[in-house]
Amino acid sequence: MSKPMRAAAFLDKGGVGKTTATAHLGVALHNNGYDVLMIDLAGKQNDLAKHFGLLEEWEESEQKPNIAHVFDDSWDYIAENIDGVVEKLTLATEEGPDLMPAHKGLDQVDDELASRPVEERYVIFDQFLSEHVEPQGYDVILIDLPGLTNNITLNGLQAAENIIAPIELGEFEEAQLEALHEDLEEYNATLDTKLSVQMIIPNRVQASTNLDSELLDELADEYPETVAPNHVPQSQDIRNAQSDGMTAFGLEEPSSTATRARDAYEANAAELVERIHE
């Protein structure tokens, strides 16, 4: 690809599987031959670094520069005076994709962004990707966003335009998904953007239960163009793998549910590429 594909995992709710989806889609795309960069804007908990067993390495480093600097007044000086600045922000994972970890300073710069003029407040991250990251030659840039709407989130959404919405099955989560579509319409109108949900990924699904089966059918009826081709099943193996610093793709002897989850992410990753490049 001449220009990297960008997508952001987002739903205005925590704990729905955004980080898990980002990690697994990133590895699936890498396994399909794409050069992938994952960027964690989701906050100081640094869950993507944990997911790949890199948190200790990152915390033991000086963490200078870090992703929070991209949003503050020091960035121009840093970019001009530090050679290979993007490489210094980036860690290699053992499963293929590269990772820009989050930093606790993101919380502070989110507040500082509120003082910026609206016309420049939400384009900072897009400019960073265009000017500094895209020249690195990545094919895909995946962004993990906070589970709430703030200034960092809006920067990530505007930079990505394409949204991946992981969702657990339930009435509250479906209401959140409906609210997301309404919010995107408002953002597009007020910020002159083209944000759109490219893929809804039903996550942690127990399809053998009548309730989850019914909710899957309802979701497919409501969003036939955007629901992922494969739902991701509930799997304790995925949780165990994450605790061990890997995705389900790193498991040597995956369970049947973990195998189905890997197959789902591979199919969904391929479909995501098709949808974005239609």
Give an overview of the whole structure.
With 278 residues, the chain is an alpha/beta fold. It has helices spanning 18-31, 47-51, 55-60, 75-81, 85-89, 105-113, 118-121, 124-133, 151-160, 171-191, 210-222, 236-243, 256-276; strands at 5-9, 36-40, 91-92, 98-100, 140-144, 162-167, 196-202. It has a seven-stranded mixed β-sheet with strand order 3-4-2-5-1-6-7, sandwiched between helices. β6 (162-167), α10 and β7 (196-202) form a beta-alpha-beta unit. The two termini are 13 Å apart. Residues 12-196 form the AAA domain. Pfam families: AAA_31. This is Chromosome partitioning protein.
Short description:
The chain is α/β, with parallel strands linked by helices and 278 residues long. It has helices at residues 18-31, 47-51, 55-60, 75-81, 85-89, 105-113, 118-121, 124-133, 151-160, 171-191, 210-222, 236-243, 256-276, and strands at 5-9, 36-40, 91-92, 98-100, 140-144, 162-167, 196-202.
Tags for this model:
Rossmann fold, alpha/beta, 278 residues, AAA_dom, 7-stranded mixed sheet, 48% helix, globular, Chromosome partitioning protein, DNA_Partitioning_ATPase
How many β-strands, per DSSP?
A: 7
By CATH, the topology is Rossmann fold
Treating each run of at least 4 consecutive H or I residues as one helix, how many helices? 13
**Biggest sheet details:** 7 strands, mixed
CATH architecture, by name, is: 3-Layer(aba) Sandwich
Amount of helix: 40-55%
Low-confidence stretches: none
* Through-space gap between termini: 13 Å
Within the largest sheet, what's the order of strands? 3-4-2-5-1-6-7
Please give the radius of gyration in angstroms: 18 Å
Arithmetic mean pLDDT: 94
Classified by CATH, the class is: Alpha Beta
Q: In percent terms, what proportion of residues is strand? A: 5-15%
Principal-axes geometry comes out as globular
CATH superfamily grouping? P-loop containing nucleotide triphosphate hydrolases
* Helix vs. strand class: alpha/beta
* Integer count of domains: 1
Order of helices and strands: EHEHHHHEEHHHEHEHEHHH
Domain AAA: 12-196
Organism: Natronorubrum thiooxidans
Protein name: Chromosome partitioning protein
